[in-house]
């Protein structure tokens, strides 16, 4: 399967299609384990940022706005919006990987589970402590999930697919994020200082966590010389045609210099 990947870095344009595996051929156990762990922790981090009600990232502003309007749990709204965004991939000819499909289901389910079990923090210092812990955990979860290299989240995939039409990744990402932020705010979503804190903090944090949690992948069966494995480049980096043996996924850092949107 193929998905458009950012070849130009933040603010660049998208290059040609790259392979996205529905099931990993190299190191499947390690990669699927890292994927599920990353998505699960991402859901926990989302709950930690949602519970204090000090502001959330733009997509969660939309999710909380819709949840308040409909009475549907916010994690379920997250799943439904993810599914709708995934449907938008069809006319854009963007194809999902295993990580894309798991992303839609796992994160929202974990969010509802954790929010239903954890006590709501009330004192101001505790609310901010919980929120900041969520931001840090979000960065670690991002590194784990992206490091598995099994496909972008539905929202990032939408961004890269639109940018593949020749537009700047930065412009596409900023336009989408601002649109969902405004719509979510009009619906009564949770906009606050935390929204700004997340936007400023998450980029530098994932800049650290993604390279350190990248899972190296090699394939021994596709070398130019028998017995030699070829390297698969880290996520989001171009691979010479002669060395391409596996998936290269867009990372949040490549998609936008600001905050990632994996979900």
UniProtKB/TrEMBL annotation:
This is Membrane protein YczE. The keyword Cell wall biogenesis/degradation does not apply. It comes from Actinospica durhamensis. The keyword Metal-binding does not apply. It comes from the Bacteria. Keywords: Membrane, Transmembrane, Transmembrane helix. It holds the Pfam family DUF6198. The chain crosses the membrane at residues 35-54, 66-90, 97-118, 124-146, 178-201. The lineage of its organism: Bacteria, Bacillati, Actinomycetota, Actinomycetes, Catenulisporales.
């Amino acid at each position: 399967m193929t998905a458009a990947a950012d070849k130009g870095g933040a603010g660049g344009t998208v290059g040609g299609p790259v392979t996205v595996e529905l099931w990993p051929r190299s190191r499947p156990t390690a990669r699927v384990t890292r994927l599920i762990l990353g998505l699960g922790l991402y859901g926990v981090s989302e709950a930690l940022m949602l519970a204090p009600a000090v502001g959330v990232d733009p997509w969660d502003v939309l999710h909380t706005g819709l949840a308040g309007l409909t009475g549907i749990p916010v994690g379920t709204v997250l799943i439904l919006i993810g599914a709708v965004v995934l449907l938008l991939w069809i006319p854009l000819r963007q194809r999902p990987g295993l990580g894309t499909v798991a992303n839609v289901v796992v994160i929202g389910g974990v969010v509802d589970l954790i929010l239903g079990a954890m006590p709501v923090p009330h004192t101001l210092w505790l609310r901010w402590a919980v929120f900041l812990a969520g931001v840090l955990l979000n960065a670690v979860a991002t590194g784990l999930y992206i490091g598995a290299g099994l496909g972008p989240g539905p929202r990032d995939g939408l961004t890269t697919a639109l940018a593949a039409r020749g537009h700047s990744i930065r412009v596409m990402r900023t336009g989408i994020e601002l649109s969902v932020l405004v719509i979510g705010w009009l619906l009564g979503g949770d906009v606050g200082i935390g929204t700004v804190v997340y936007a400023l903090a998450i980029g530098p944090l994932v800049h650290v966590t993604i390279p350190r949690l990248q899972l190296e992948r090699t394939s021994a069966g596709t070398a130019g010389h028998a017995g030699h494995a070829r390297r698969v480049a880290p996520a989001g980096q171009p691979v010479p045609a002669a060395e391409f043996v596996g998936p290269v996924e867009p990372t949040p850092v490549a998609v936008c210099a600001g905050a990632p949107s994996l979900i």
